[in-house]
Amino acid sequence: MRTLRYLLAWYFFLLCILTAFPGILFGLTIPKIDDPLRFKISIAMDVVIMVAALVFGRAWWVLWHEKFYARWWCIAASVTSLLAPVSFLIIYPLDPRPKVFWSSVGFLSFYSLPAAIGIGGILFGCTDAARSLPLDLQPHFGRVILDSVLLFHLTCIFVSGLVFCARELLKHRHIAPAYLVVIALLGYVSLSFYRSLRRTVHNRRAEMKEISAN
């Protein structure tokens, strides 16, 4: 669980830096805007960007120092980090403009990873509530969360690839064999991770029952 905590801490630190600096630079350009409407919209956008940077920075601080209220900031930062990648993952496969398959896989892989980490942060924040239990009774869900993050990442690419192939089939009446091989491989790997995750959860439940019985 500690490894997952530090991974999330550095992830939110990186998001804080990548959000704060553009927000500051964007804020410096606002006084040069002459249009009153654009001026107000720019101020609102910069406020949203800086608030997001503050949430990411605070989440990094409390996770790194293992504060007892870290889970609330972790959940807030995780939800904030999901807004951009999830929006892209929804819009991109539905965009009717022509796309190259391999570029699409690369884009979706890039955006589904932060989405998966955001969901992992929410799961971590929820399970971290149990840390007040005795050490031998704490549910160690770190491995489960990491496996779930990877499974979500692969599933996003797999589903998006299926949507892409379905569109190609409807439009051109044929699909390149290489596309089908990649989709089949992603489906097989996703299914394997799902089965592994089920076994991990089952074994952990058995351990918890044994600890409770003793």
Key descriptive features of the protein:
mainly alpha; 6 helices; flat; 83% helix; 214 residues
Verbal overview:
The relative contact order is 0.10. The protein has six helices and no strands. The chain starts with a helix and ends with a helix. It has one domain (2-213). It has helices spanning 2-29, 36-64, 70-94, 101-127, 142-172, 177-213. Residues 132-137 have low confidence and may be disordered. It is mainly alpha-helical and 214 residues long. The protein is 83% helix and 0% strand.
The helix content is over 70%
- Specify the structural class: mainly alpha
The averaged pLDDT comes out at 76
Largest sheet: none
Shape descriptor reads: flat
Outline the secondary-structure elements:
Layout: H1 2-29, H2 36-64, H3 70-94, H4 101-127, H5 142-172, H6 177-213
Characterize this entry briefly.
The chain is mostly helical.
